[in-house]
Design brief:
Structural class: alpha/beta
Number of strands: 32
Bound molecules: adenosine-5'-monophosphate-propyl ester
Shape: globular
Strand order of the largest sheet: 5-4-17-16-18-19-20
């Protein structure tokens, strides 16, 4: 059977004989008590996977491996920021996770309580995540690049009992203090204030005491050698919340379950990434993003593999750093973003080829469109298959991909290949009719969504249904991406169809940026769009209308408002102060027209525009 036939057969089975397929995959993990059913889909679109089954993620990711591979390295931490490297075995990870779990219990954290983790890329972040799921607590990791406003809105939404943070992080050799941002965020929250646990890394940060803060080093010392039994939770118990951006300014808390999540992670390593227990995976991402959750932390550890946690930039101290790690640690599977590769492309292939990369079998890229040229360039430089995989925070693992573990099918440059197991993909045109080959449409998934996908939006089932399942006549999950497939059934992703911007693989909502700008007293209104960028995929351009009689701030001052509130990643590249914005007669800003002009295109016919002169206002600004 060819690889193509093997895939087709398994894929068909994952759709046509869904329960039998996932029942088989579920054998890859340990169940304390078997599940009653594979799938409960009595209340669409809510899919409950493996209900009645009792299990624990930490047990599966740590305890289970201690007997068989206790001395094997679980985590290799490499920090080019603080110039440190550490190897942590599964046995050592077990010890640290138990001590941390014991500390969490002492702090009054119990099953179902939320813990917000705001930490840089240090091993303690993984330990904290695992300690939470060990005791049935729900973690919410917030990306270290996010600032006060982003933190406050997440704290308000998740109402955590505890925030775990550090004195600071480092980026490109510069210290980024965390506590002032958290302190400012806490001042703005409306819910009960959480306790704060601080890991002092000894960075040279300005003193910023937070009321009642607990010092991690002295607190954890009391728990030396303590063991905490894993709490057996139902498969449907939430394991974590991860916030992501959408059309509105308010981030959505993507809620993931326990059992389905583990089954999805484990089988994705086997079939997609082709990583076996004992092998080495390196995902060059951040634990604050979904790629980090899935492929730095959960999938490798659930597999009994070794994961590399890298704190630093991919081009510092030099552009060869990642490839030297591949050579030194015998990395078998590398995962990163197209932007990281485009950055390396600028510096030349010799940074890659001078290293012995014989251990590396496959590289995976995800998070943003992978252009054909970059795909071809990196494939030629590496001389191994480079797999584009397409997915979302919401799904937690690939919707479209090729399958290194099964045996790769033909790769086409610029295509994330075909639907992954359990994803019944459909393309719709504007009228809601289903499309065939070679026509661009909106990519949808016919529910139930497979295991591992979000179970709901934290605290808001109605918003989950309305956001994702209400745009078509039939109940279908909307990805909010345009796509097309060719005569061979190969998909190509054509970008978002909502107001989400993707800067270097970092997902941001235009509304978030606009709302941050509007907090400045001189700003009356704002519009943000994502223009195409050769390196980062997209860059943010903002247009701001000032209050009459306001003292005009400089564009830089306004850009910094965004950086301070949301974080540096959301800081607009360009900001123009304009007398007005193009709007429809009903008062809606026409972002589509602004974007077209900002990219130097013709905005086309705009029959509903209130005042066409506003188009010239934008034209003059971007000139
Ligand atoms: O627009 C798609 C784009 O990133 C979005 C999801 O971003 P996020 O929630 O941060 O999850 C990233 C997980 C890898 C998608 O809706 N995107 C992601 N992967 C690809 C992609 N666009 C094109 N090709 C991809 N491979």
């Amino acid at each position: 059977m060819s690889n193509q036939e093997a895939y087709e057969k398994m894929y068909r089975r994952s759709i046509d004989d869904r329960e039998a397929f996932w029942d088989e995959q579920a054998q890859l993990i340990h169940w304390h008590k078997p599940y009653d059913r594979v799938l409960d889909y009595d209340d669409p679109p809510f899919a409950k996977w493996f209900p009645g089954g009792l299990t624990n993620i930490c047990y599966n990711a740590v305890d289970r491996h201690v007997a068989e591979r206790g001395d094997q390295t679980a985590i290799i931490w490499v920090s080019t920021e603080v110039d440190k490297r550490e190897h942590m075995s599964y046995r050592e990870l077990y010890r640290q996770v138990n001590e941390m779990a014991s500390l969490l219990l002492e702090l009054g954290i119990g099953q179902g309580d939320r813990v917000l983790i705001y930490l840089p890329m240090m091993p303690e972040a993984i330990v904290a995540m695992l300690a939470c799921v060990r005791i049935g607590a729900i973690h919410s990791v917030v990306f270290g690049g996010f600032a006060a406003l982003a933190l406050a809105s997440r704290i308000d939404d998740a109402s955590p009992k505890l925030v775990i943070t550090a004195d600071g992080g480092m980026r490109g050799g510069k210290i980024a203090p965390y506590k002032p941002l958290l302190s400012e965020g806490l001042a703005a929250v409306t819910v009960e204030k959480p306790a704060v646990l601080v890991l002092n890394r000894g960075l040279d940060t300005p003193p910023c005491p937070i009321e009642g803060e607990i010092d991690f080093a002295s607190a954890i010392a009391r728990h030396a050698g303590k063991e905490v039994p894993p709490v057996w939770v139902d498969s449907t118990h939430p394991s974590y919340i991860l916030y992501t951006s959408g059309t509105t300014g308010r981030p959505k808390g993507v809620q993931r379950d326990t059992g389905g999540h583990m089954v999805a992670m484990r089988q994705s390593m086997k079939h997609i990434y082709g990583v076996e227990p004992g092998e080495v995976m390196f995902a060059g991402s951040d634990i604050g993003w979904v790629v980090g959750h899935s492929y730095i932390v959960y999938a490798p550890l659930l597999t009994g593999a070794t994961t590399i946690l890298y704190e630093g930039l991919p081009i510092r101290p030099d552009p060869g750093i990642w490839w030297s790690l591949v050579a030194e640690y015998g990395v078998n599977c590398l995962f990163t973003s197209p932007t990281a590769i485009r950055l390396l492309k600028k510096t030349g292939a010799e940074w890659i080829t001078r290293h012995d990369l014989s251990s590396l079998r496959t590289m995976f890229l995800a998070g943003e469109p992978l252009d054909k040229e970059t795909h071809r360039w990196v494939t030629e430089a590496l001389r191994i298959p480079v797999v584009d995989n397409y997915w979302q925070t919401e799904t937690g693992w690939p919707i479209l991909t090729n399958f290194a573990g099964l045996g790769l099918m033909e790769l086409k440059f610029g295509s994330p290949t075909k639907p992954s197991f359990g994803y019944d993909t459909v393309l719709l045109d504007e009228t809601g009719a289903e499309l065939g080959a070679n026509t661009k449409g909106s990519l949808m998934v016919r529910p139930p969504l497979p295991p591992g996908c979000m179970s709901t939006i934290w605290g808001d089932d109605a918003r989950f249904v309305k956001t994702y399942f209400s745009s078509a006549k039939e109940m279908l999950y909307a990805t909010f991406d345009y796509a097309i497939f060719d005569d061979d059934g190969y998909y190509f992703i054509m970008g978002r169809n909502d107001d989400v911007i993707n800067v270097a693989g970092h997902r941001l909502g235009t509304r978030e940026v606009e709302e941050a700008l509007c907090t400045h007293p001189a700003v009356a209104e704002a519009a943000a769009v994502g223009i195409q960028d050769q390196l980062k995929g997209q860059e943010i351009v903002a247009f701001v209308v000032l209050m009459t009689n306001a003292v005009p701030p400089t564009p830089e001052e306004l850009k910094n408002v965004v950086a301070r509130q949301i974080g540096g990643i959301a800081k607009p590249k360009f900001l123009h102060i304009v007398p007005g914005l193009p709007k429809t007669r009903s008062g809606k800003v026409i972002r589509r027209a602004i974007l077209a002009i900002a990219e130097g295109r013709d905005p086309g016919d705009l029959p509903t525009i209130e005042d066409a002169k506003m188009l010239d206002v934008i034209r003059n600004a971007v000139k």
